[in-house]
Amino acid sequence: MVQIDGRAAGESLVRARGLGKTYQRGGEEIHVLQGLNLDVDAGEFIAFMGPSGSGKTTLLNLLGGLDVPSEGSVTVAGDEITRMSARKLTTWRARHVGFVFQMYNLIPVLTAFQNVELPLLLTGLSKAERRRHVETALTVVGLADRMRHYPRQLSGGQEQRVGIARAIVADPTFLLCDEPTGDLDRKSADEVLDLLGRLAGEHGKTILMVTHDPLAAERAHVVLHLEKGVLVDTVTAGRAR
Amino acid sequence: MKYGHLILTNLFRKKTRTALTAGSFAVALFLFGILAVVRGAFQQGVEVAGADRLVVVNRVSIIQPLPLAYRDRLARIPGVTQVTFANWFGGVYQDERNFFPQFAIDRETYRQMYPEFVIPDDQWQAFLGDKEGAVVGEALAERFKWKLGDRLPIKGTIFAGSWEFNVRAIYKGRRVQDDETQFWFRWDYLDERKQFRKGNVGWYTVRIDSPDSAVRVVKAIDELFANSPAETKTDTEKAFAASWVKQMGNIELLITTIGSVVFFTLLLVTGNTMAIAVRERTRELAVLKAVGFSDPFVLVLVIVETIVVAAVGGGVGLGLAKLFTLRGDPTGGLLPFFYLPASAIVSGLALALVVGLLAGILPAFSASRLRIVDALRRI
Ligand SMILES: Nc1ncnc2c1ncn2[C@@H]1O[C@H](COP(=O)(O)OP(=O)(O)OP(=O)(O)O)[C@@H](O)[C@H]1O
Ligand SMILES: [Mg+2]
Questions:
Q1: Which chain A positions have a beta carbon within 8 Å of B12's beta carbon?
Q2: Could you say which of A44, A92, B243, B359 would form a disulfide bridge with B270 (CB–CB 3.0 to 4.6 Å)?
Q3: Is B242 part of any domain?
Q4: What pLDDT does residue A238 have?
Q5: Structural domain of residue B253, as residue ranges?
Q6: Does the beta carbon of A160 lie inside 6 Å of ligand 1?
Q7: Residue nearest to atom 18 of ligand 1 (CA)
Q8: Are residues B33 and B108 in the same domain?
Q9: Would the pLDDT of B260 be above 50?
Q10: Are residues B68 and B217 in the same domain?
Q11: Total number of domains in chain B
Q12: In the predicted model, is pLDDT for residue B69 greater than 70?
């Protein structure tokens, strides 16, 4: 279930209440988000759409604990992350969130394998265990044969799939994807979207994705529009449940 | 170390830049090593000075002589256990540039006074038995390829005339810092041949029963010869050597100044380089943090990176300095003690690490304080 009226009954996986974000620009206050509510259950695949500057990235940053709201709260799996100290939030992110960025953001001097391994360095896993996890993640994204390649030796679509492997390798609670196909051609974009669809469908991953691309949004179970600081429901044809 | 490759790959990212930064450290530490060697060369006399030896010179100036008769009067002063004397010769061997110190020494007492110079007994006996005999330091002998039995012509300057000596003995220093470049011959031979000031010596060295009586004995000696035609000025060997160094100018200040300027420059250059390196990587550092690496981790990452460059560059520089000193004194005799001690290598490395730490600390702080959302927004 996905709800935006703030009246969800039981415990949802991701819950935002009265979320607000205000920026100061030259003495002027810009209310990007205002009184936003959201409840997402485990296993959902949501697409956020909205015009440029509507606050989609801001929302993902708040849900992923990269930024703190001006008001309201975010609770994930029972933990209210908006009350955590910065240090605790860092640890929490490592454990619960997988980020996929529009610009892939791979480290150019590390191989695909090493890039994917990064989040695992923060765990207590042994070298052999890390290797096994990395190989599994790269197999899921279909790049097991590119482990030794550097980002510059990969196509954009492949880079993004490495980015997704990095996001899933530590088995996070949910994935946050900010325009994951924004920089890709149609074919590569479709491959990445197929992959995200499989992660949601076969692997039961919870995915929150920002996109400008209606075809991308179609893959999601639910499409939500961000308008004037709050979410507006739009039930799409792609809605599965 | 599972994070090792994070540091190493970053260093190899811009190989030229890393090499240049490490190179700056190498140059600075090479210079540091050489300055330490030069300083050591000047301080050598102070370091090897015997704590229980006093030097007695003419109050007017060291080049004024003292009467031979003082020997027995010195020996009678309470606390004095041994007396020897010597005379500066200042001759020229083949060429003015072949400088080395030449002393006319008292063959009866000099060897006991300076046990740090080790001479085989048979060679010493040969020296005693040859009026034209000479004892030379091992380093000096090596420099001119002298062997026992060689006959050396030396042109007198203070004591005019052509002199010839036979190498009868070669001495070795007991410690590395002992001067092995001296040339000794018999004072009695000098006194016999010289035309003027017969019965005079250059200076006396006396041994005292304990370093604690130095102050008292110094006073007793200078009082004994006060108001005589040749008044004396007595000092511990250490103080004597130190005042000798001072006459060469304030080497210490010079070295400190040069060193400080070089290291300050190094600090600025490295700090700037690291700041650029961090700025270029803003996005990647933000990604590391987004993934869950903590601010302190990023701080340490940048600092360790700088320190590794500093340690490698500094190590190379000190290594080169050490190699340079192994080839011996490049001035040809002016700096007999040309040696880079382990202590200087250690303090040089420590200095490099401190500079690396200081240079890395500001960029590292800005990296660790970087806000992820801002950094990711900037392309
Ligand atoms: N640090 C900041 N300081 C001031 N204003 C900011 C800051 N970050 C974001 N904003 C503003 O907040 C608004 C929302 O930005 P946000 O990046 O969330 O939009 P978006 O929906 O992701 O847009 P796009 O589709 O272009 O990525 C914009 O008007 C932006 O200029
Ligand atoms: Mg955005």
A1: 109
A2: B359
A3: no
A4: 42
A5: 4-45+249-378
A6: no
A7: A55
A8: no
A9: yes
A10: yes
A11: 2
A12: yes
